[in-house]
Amino acid sequence: MTTVSDRVRRLLVKSRATHYVLAKRSGVSAGQLSRFASGKRDLYLPALAALAAALGYEIVLRPKGSKRRTKR
Prior knowledge:
Elements: H1 4-15, H2 19-26, H3 30-37, H4 45-54
Helix pairs in contact: 2-4
């Protein structure tokens, strides 16, 4: 099962933005971002949401079993 963290890590790689730039945009420290990107640590939801927003995405919760899919 793919986690939200896994998806955000893929977006991080796909963006090709530097950790410095993403740290500035998201407010997540460069150290935290580096540890997250390397898979050594996960981020709490507020930091994960801020990083997703800096990448141009948002984290959305929907009811379990909902047939409605979000665009990727």
